[in-house]
Amino acid sequence: MTAKMIDMPSGARDIIDALMSRGFEAYAVGGCVRDSLMGRVPHDWDVCTSARPCDVRDALGARYPIIPTGEKYGTLTVSADGETFEVTTFRGDGAYSDGRRPDSVTFSDNLADDLSRRDFTMNAVAYNPRLGLADPFGGAEDIRRRVIRTVGAPRARLAEDALRIMRACRFASELGFSLDPDTAAAVKALAPTLANVAAERISAELIKLLMGSHVEHVLNAHREVLFAAVPPLAALDCLEQNRHHFLDAYRHTARVVAASPPVPEVRMAALLHDVGKAACRTVGADGDVHFYGHAEISAETADALFAKELRFSGDFRKRVLLLIRHHNAEIAETGANVKRWLARLGEPAFRQLLDLNAADAAGHADMARERREAKTERLRLLLDVVIASKDCFSLQSLDINGHDLIAAGHEPGPQMGRLLRALLSAVIDGKCDNEKSALLRYSTQI
Are residues 330 and 351 in the same domain? Predict the structure, then answer.
């Protein structure tokens, strides 16, 4: 794709035109240009300019709302035509003593100075509708070759901010690019420095990496990065499994992640579903390998990981841990049992559990895989029948509530919840109809 084919949103074009009319240089820059060159639709458009923040305000403030999101570093956020655009002054960065942000920035009139501070050549590209593509570091050729290469010496560029190690792998997962040999060597050597990066930043990049369509290759090719970011995974590397598997525990994990639907909590659960296996591996008298209780141990290991190395919302953690804890459960193929699981998990979580089970099957040997996949499909069909028939499987769908039971003479208190759950079980088991009078009669027998 040539630069002249880049189609910019009207807001970005207006901002560039307004700045150029004042005598300043201005370009779309970074990921939006990279994605455009790849034929992808960019999610965000950033603009870089020789104008200082005060000049940006003068040129745009009368027409568009401006938010000083990072004015100290030369960045203003401009709202134009229903979209927001970050507009940043050309700059050079000082030292990164905190391993995250430059200690100082120096504004520049030179686009090359600004592009030279960026992480990878594919992101060090800029575009102006009148002037065309600016590409001093060969980013367009690297995009064509599908290669991730640092701007400048790899070790120096990655050492400035160790999160760039994760970003390199994340881009490889998202775009299907490979790391050039020197960049790959630096990523491997510097992976331990991820321990110095804030857990929130690691977590955000890890989710993006896991959601990539090329995630299995990246997990296998750059496992040192994953071991640094998610330490319990290291124990799975080369961990021999049993006759039901054809991959070691780590490569099995990579396969399961890739086979999972691209839903954050499901892919995170897939990544961590077996992290407890090394701690409970045993060899039976028959010589076969066993991992008794590994689901619960994996959930405990993941919970400890979330408390220390990774940071996610409490609700996200809860959903991931629930999937890990139940991923190896034997689910009987009956309508009543499906209703019990629905009562325990709710429909969305139960569907995600079946998705994880199907992905887990993809990492098994042929016979085990076929058996597990067939069972999961039968459970999905049973689930659909239960949902379509509007059967009762939750306290909310019971034709009775606590007020009804109190009115009938039952004592209020903690026992009321136990009674309602017992009535729900009776309905699920077919011992009582989900009808108020029948439930009241049955409640006297409990």
Answer: yes
User: Token match 């507009």: residue?
Assistant: 87
Q: Does residue 144 register a pLDDT over 80?
A: yes
pLDDT (0 to 100) of residue 2: 44
The SS3 of residue 80 is strand
Domain extent for 363: 234-388
Percent of the chain with pLDDT over 70: 98
CATH number at residue 89: 3.30.460.10
Tell whether 3 and 127 lie within a shared domain. Answer: yes
Domain total of the chain: 4
Q: Are residues 212 and 284 in the same domain?
A: no
Q: Number of H helices and number of E strands within the chain? A: 22, 13
Q: Could you read off the pLDDT of 74-132 as tens digits, one per residue? A: 999 999 988 999 999 999 877 776 666 777 789 999 999 999 999 999 999 999 999 99
Q: Are 274 and 342 members of one domain?
A: yes
Transcribe 136-186 into DSSP letters.
Answer: TT-HHHHHHHTEE-BSS-HHHHHHH-THHHHHHHHHHHHH--EE-HHHHHH
Q: 102 with 49, same domain? A: yes
- Domain boundary among the residues 98, 113, 145 is at 145
Please answer whether residues 234 and 249 qualify as being in contact, where contact means their C-beta atoms are separated by less than 8 angstroms.
no
- In angstroms, the CA 230 to CA 227 distance is 5
Angle formed at CA 115 by CA 109 and CA 117, multiple of 5 degrees: 100
Shared domain for 166 and 194, answered yes or no, is yes
**Residue 84: HSE in the Cβ half-sphere, 13 Å Cα cutoff:** 9
**What confidence tens digit (pLDDT) does each residue in 148-181 have?**
999 999 999 999 999 999 999 999 999 999 999 9
Q: Around Cβ 409, how many Cβ atoms within 10 Å?
A: 9
